[in-house]
Amino acid sequence: MRSINRLRAVSVLALLILAAGALVPVAWSDEPETIVRVTARKFEYSPNEIRLKRGVPAIIELTSLDRLHGFDCPGLGLRTDIPPGKTTRLRVVPDKSGTFPFHCDVFCGEGHEDMTGTIIVTD
């Protein structure tokens, strides 16, 4: 009987330690996520320049005002479709600084090739 109670006590203690460990990263995180909203419409992104900080988590929220567009930033490994009427979210924690071009990779009509922008990541 004592061994069963001891086993229960150890199990509860192990669960409490695991739960505390799961909360620690949230409690110690001093960098809040940056939210950047980007609107895509016929042949442009607004804004077409996004500034992020290296190591700081960011959410890029993308919406389309007219048709299906794409968002492709190969330098940071980001890629998604942007369907009209929906919000698409990309989470990124930039691990390098620099200038990274992005573009629409879903043909959306004449002028599609001008649908570009830049993500600038600073230290």
Describe the structure.
The radius of gyration is 22 Å and the shape is elongated. It is α/β, with parallel strands linked by helices and 123 residues long. Helix content is 22%, strand content 42%. It has a four-stranded mixed sheet with strand order 2-1-4-7, with no helix packed on it.
What is the CA-CA span between the terminal residues?
Answer: 59 Å
Average pLDDT metric: 84
Low-confidence stretches: 13-29
What pattern of helices and strands is seen along the backbone? HEEEEEEEEE
Radius of gyration: 22 Å
Strand content: 35-45%
Order of strands in the sheet with most strands: 2-1-4-7
Helix/strand-derived category reads: alpha/beta
Topology at a glance:
Blueprint (H helix, E strand, L loop, with lengths): L1 H27 L5 E8 L2 E3 L2 E5 L4 E7 L4 E5 L4 E5 L4 E6 L5 E6 L12 E7 L1
Parallel strand pairs: 1-4, 3-9
Antiparallel strand pairs: 1-2, 4-7, 5-6, 8-9
Brief account:
This protein is of the alpha/beta class. The chain contains one helix and nine strands; from the N terminus they run H-E-E-E-E-E-E-E-E-E.
Properties at a glance:
123 residues; alpha/beta; four-stranded mixed beta sheet; three-stranded mixed beta sheet; 9 strands; 22% helix; elongated
